[in-house]
């Protein structure tokens, strides 16, 4: 069997499994999730042994310490996966819930009901724990899942998937509900992207180049989890203490994640008071500043920013700063250079606040808070498969509900159309 | 300016207009829709004159009478467009409505709010009234729209769009809110499909080949309005009188539309009683029957069906009939050969009904009613832009709500993440 046939077989098996999954009760699904957690725990040594193979190849291939760290399945990370499975087991199951119900004058009753999407493909990079987390969320929502991880984590991914399959099977999980593509050949991704008959959705998780490649190649619908070029705008009517605190948090609390601030915009009439102290705070925290002319004048440590800086997702301790004329200029900057992820205004003025909330075209828009809150858990969704930067189907943090679609159930007593 | 530049300019203008549209109040949008209706009425003669040019070219090109009929803008059809605009004006505006609101323990208030999608491309075929209907729904939901009609209706489409633009502009509609691509060059569609920076969604409306071509070419998300291979399954526990009535209605009331029945499935234990009378009814109505062996034995007029018949969307007075062993076989047939559109079961048995509703993977599943009800107006949605056969974002009849997305508005008092 060549790779294409092999992947198509995986797709057909997933489609068949998705029919079986639609029949599982919530109670049964939860028992399966608990059994998967137990089995991961039982196979801890084996999983770490397989993980060691990946780490050894990684060291040999000269992976960076950061990459090797992401790859490593420490005890704490395995505990995290196990806890994740048990947490998903106790979350509400959206499948089967009624979104709304109404009656028509002819007596038809229409129920709009949440149902699984069907078969979901997850294409991801180095972190092997995604195998567990993504599979758990797809399974809880009765979707079959096809996982395709990076080649540097292949042994770890296979070991995790095998443990989940074994634990699940003991409690009656359909055998092909969770499948991991065992080959690291890039051809496999291409076949997945063309498998419109079997796959209903692809979610790529990883760096920009992976997401771009999948989006351009795919005939299957894709929900992108793209970069976060997040802004904080300090308005003329801002509480400056709040502005310093929020800017520091948004930039420094965890700079390597998508909801961290990359660009700070400051109203021109408060630049003289706001920027010098901001410069001190950021310099103390080790942040490199790149700014426009005014910024460079007011902050000694600042370097001149280029046009490219406004487009940059640094993911590290670098901050671009620009002085703007007013809230409209801030909105225009964000809509031009941003990535539609998360953007905040700090202001006490209702007019500026309302314009910002209405016109900034991003998944999450904030007033007087740090952009770092854009996250399924922080929003109270319980779990997240990622943060969509697309506008269709799901936008912003994607939880269990976003892994479902709906159907219309129409109940009649013999009605025909006149 | 070459075609590509021209289309990209249209895209950039639409994107800019979408920002302005986000600021219009519902009251203002409704006044604009009324003004567009008035202007269509005022320009009736001009529109019909332009329509006559298309009809003349169509006759010359040898279009079928059915095609010419679809193309013609009779007085009644212009009345229909005008009424459509006024109807959309009185519908509820979903933009700005709150889907839900909640508070987090840290005091953050999160509001999930409906917002426009942005810029929508509609690619359609012969009927010029789509220009008006689709533009009205996109405008009401504050989306900018780029329309691309078929070459056979180009003069009609341009005249309708010009009237809407003129009427709308008088009441303050942004000039580029509604744009019709003035060239019929096929290159224009290709450029639209690659315009990911400007277009948020493409909705192709027309035949299978158009939808396939757009889907395969597009890097912009597409919501397909694909074919309807709709089934009615007559269960062993069916009220046979109801079965005959529903089957006749689903097949004959308007056979040329996507929610008409194409295949009838009959439980083997009632075939002997159900099929002969069904054969009489269908023959009286001029329906050609293609069936399996049992069907051909029980209905004299039936011709043998081939495997291809189960995949066929006839859109005319032809009906495929198959005898099945039980409800599970009916479900398996529908999931294999159907198009995920609309499927019905006629039964008095709760177990069969529940299995059918849960396992048939279609946008609309019916118990004891005709599939002909799958329609925005019949479902009580007020208007529809089409019927999605996709599962993401919108499934089944798409009304105004489905032309919106959402954003999270997060209101704080200085919260930062610990």
Pair with the biggest interface: A-B, 64 and 64 residues
At the third CATH level, what is the topology name of the largest domain in chain A? Aldehyde Dehydrogenase, Chain A, domain 1
Number of domains of chain A: 2
Strand content of chain A: 15-25%
| Rg calc of chain A | 24 Å
Shape of chain A: globular
Which secondary-structure class do the elements of chain A indicate? alpha/beta
Provide the helix percentage of chain A. Answer: 40-55%
SSE layout:
The structure is a homodimer of 418-residue chains.
Chain A: H1 3-21, H2 26-42, H3 44-60, H4 65-71, H5 75-90, E1 98-103, E2 109-116, E3 119-124, H6 129-140, E4 144-148, H7 154-170, E5 178-180, H8 187-194, E6 201-205, H9 208-217, E7 230-234, H10 240-252, E8 261-267, H11 271-284, E9 288-291, H12 293-298, E10 303-304, H13 307-310, E11 318-324, H14 327-337, E12 342-346, H15 350-359, E13 364-369, E14 386-388, E15 396-398, E16 404-415
Parallel strand pairs in A: 3-4, 3-6, 4-5, 7-8, 7-12, 8-11, 9-10, 9-11, 12-13
Antiparallel strand pairs in A: 1-2, 2-16, 14-15
Helix pairs in contact in A: 1-8, 2-5, 2-7, 3-7, 5-6, 10-11, 14-15
